[in-house]
Amino acid sequence: MARKWFQLVGERGSDVTSVAAVSVDIEDVDAFRDAVKAKYEDSHLAGIAAADLTVFANRAAYNVKQALEEDSPIGSFGGLEEDALIVQVPTPRPVAMPTFVWKAPKSLVGSIGANWDFQNSLNIGNLSYAIGQHYQAWTKGKTDKRSHPLFVCSGGPGTGKSKLLDELPNVLRQQVGVQGDPAMNELLRNAYTFKVTFENGTTDNRGISDPSKMIGTRMLYQLYRSVGRLGEGG
Asked: What is the enclosing helix (H) or strand (E) of 125?
């Protein structure tokens, strides 16, 4: 293995490290960059890809910005500490990340029925008992599916499914929570509500086939600050 001396510098020419050395099996720029990255991957080069490092034969070559190609041999370079290879480290660029804030979900009902009073005909006793059992299983860490049932609302078109789902958080807080454990009541009062739909033009999953990712993406979309679609600028 060949021992190669080098020094890391920033984009503006300031020294990032003192002169150091690495050993390489293949004496070309690509292998050398990988060795340099491995040496400083937890410090100076954290988050920086080896391919983003620019290598110069020595300080003189760096001063005139004459970089080596990635497949260039380095056999004659870096053999002496006083004539070390120069490795330029790119300055990390800020990446614009989506901004997420809590936003209450939009109503699932888009018709005039959204403004109608909710005529509650639910069997609250059965619902309260089932949710109470669900809560107790959760507090005890039970993970079997019988302890975590899915609450399903089914019916034909126009029978009020969406209206019921819109009202369900308030029903749980106002009528179920007050009848149960105070801790459960506190959780219900402070719970965040997400409304996820796969209808009305929202069925395009953009190549996502995992159900959990489909649901998770829609949950993030509810919190996305921009008015554009998630994944787009705006």
From this structure: helix 124-139
On the question of pLDDT at 25 being above 60, the answer is yes
Give the chain's domains with CATH numbers: 2-88 (3.10.20.90), 112-223 (no CATH)
Which of 22-26, 59-63, 99-103 shows the lowest mean pLDDT across its residues?
99-103
Of the pLDDT bands very low, low, confident and very high (cuts 50, 70, 90), residue 109 is confident
Indicate the SS3 state at residue 78: coil
Beta strands per DSSP E along the chain: 2-9, 20-24, 54-56, 85-88
Q: What is the largest CA-CA distance in the chain?
A: 86
Please name the helix (run of DSSP H) or strand (run of DSSP E) that holds residue 23, with its range, or none. strand 20-24
Q: Cβ(165)–Cβ(77) under 8 Å?
A: no
Q: Are 55 and 85 in contact (CB under 8 A)?
A: yes
Q: What is the pLDDT of residue 94?
A: 67
Q: Amino acid identity of 83? A: D
